[in-house]
Amino acid sequence: MSANDAPRAQQPSAAYDSAFLKACRREPVPHTPVWFMRQAGRSLPEYRKVREGIAMLESCMRPELVTEITLQPVRRHGVDAAIYFSDIVVPLKAIGIDLDIKPGVGPVVEHPIRTRADLAQLRDLTPEDVSYVTEAIGLLTRELGATPLIGFAGAPFTLASYLVEGGPSRTYENAKAMMYGDPELWADLLDRLADITAAFLKVQIEAGASAVQLFDSWAGALAPVDYRRSVLPASAKVFEAVAGYGVPRIHFGVGTGELLGLMGEAGADVVGVDWRVPMDEAARRIGPGKALQGNLDPTVLFAPTEAVEAKTREVLASAQDLEGHIFNLGHGVMPATDPDALTRLVEHVHTQTAR
User: Fold this and answer.
1) Angle between helix 183-207 and 156-165 (nearest 10)
2) Which of 66, 128, 234, 337 has the fewest CB atoms within 10 Å of its CB?
3) Known catalytic residue at 42
4) Out of 47, 84, 132, 162, which one is annotated catalytic?
5) Does 1 have pLDDT greater than 80?
């Protein structure tokens, strides 16, 4: 499967008229829909219980476990969408990259990509490589019914950063050295990753995902001129590859306030905004024709309920004139977050925005 394969438009699902998908399409909604990045994960005691003794990558390859973990926050919080439980490095592992997710560290790559010869590690991804994803999404869509399921993947730049650095980085010196010093190699690396990412998203959509989100977690490390020249083409290729399915496409990065307009240009239908830029200002930077997603600071949830609700109302007020708004945090749920605070937040947003 390559990014150039023509996708088949999806038939409307039971979730088509959900508040989440309506907001993605910038249609009137009964209330502002809510979901949280990392809503399935370490903040939930039931998650920690079912994951006990199971390595992260292994847990992503067990369809019944993936189904249970994905459903947990839907049951507990009453969110308007589920997000498929996985990790951005799963497609890399599936094509044979020697990597592991080390607790307290993150993804670690045994043989980083530093030369043109190293590109040979990156073969095409086929549906058979991730058959467990197809199985899990089939189980999930039957359980979720009218609740949408969001598929996701890591964006080419963020995946490239892990592959070139060999693991997490604060400075991305090796990745940026390649980007600046060997732009042809860098472009070829991102182009291959765009094909792999597009193939991974296609598997999820064809299995029944109602929307997809591209996480460019580390794009905020880039200047706009470098993003436009060296990153945007690959992200745009991913979005274009899945455009024909007709499912909403979301684009999110952290610290990307200076890149919001460019991220919108890449082709997504919805642009995620972190907590640093107010929603109305983000809309100005992005321009018309896009729904926005965000953007409560995740640390606000550690404050008393009254403070959480006050900050939430600020976000909602800033977003009140948007063409479409999906309420989310400005980044993922932090592990020490009180799950009850998330449940109360969902109810508060629904109550405040009921139409």
Assistant:
1) 120
2) 128
3) yes
4) 162
5) no
State the DSSP string of 131-181: HHHHHHHHHHHHHHTTS-EEEEEE-HHHHHHHHHHSS--SS-HHHHHHHHH
Task: Detail the DSSP E strand segments found in the chain.
Answer: 82-83, 99-102, 106-109, 149-154, 211-216, 249-253, 270-272, 291-296, 325-329
Catalytic (active site) residue 180:
no
Tokens of 118: 């190293």
- The one catalytic residue in 51, 76, 192, 249 is 51
Would you call 87 a catalytic residue per the annotation? yes
The answer to whether 236 touches 255, Cβ cutoff 8 Å, is no
Got the DSSP string for 215-241?
A: EETTGGGS-HHHHHHHTHHHHHHHHHH
Number of C-beta neighbours around residue 114 at 10 A: 16
Known active-site residue 47: no
Asked if 156 and 102 touch (Cβ cutoff 8 Å), the reply is no
User: In the 8-state DSSP scheme, what is residue 89?
Assistant: T
Fill in the amino acid letter for 11. Answer: Q
Judge whether 308 and 299 are in contact, CB under 8 Å: no
Q: CA angle, corner 126, sides to 120 and 129, nearest 5?
A: 90
Order of strands across the sheet that contains 270-272: 82-83, 149-154, 211-216, 249-253, 270-272, 291-296, 325-329
Amino acid letter for position 109: V
Six token digits for residue 291: 């729904």
The residue from 25, 62, 87, 188 that is catalytic is 87
Task: Answer yes or no: 338 catalytic.
Answer: no
| pTM of the complete model | 0.96
Average confidence (pLDDT) over 223-237:
98
Q: Are strands 270-272 and 211-216 parallel, antiparallel or unpaired?
A: unpaired
**Res. 80 pLDDT band, cuts 50 70 90:** very high
DSSP code of residue 338: -
Alpha-carbon gap, residue 235 to 259, rounded angstroms: 13
Q: Which two tokens stand for residue 223?
A: 């200047």
Q: Report pLDDT digits (tens) over 157-195.
A: 999 999 999 999 999 999 999 999 999 999 999 999 999
CA distance 152 to 200: 8
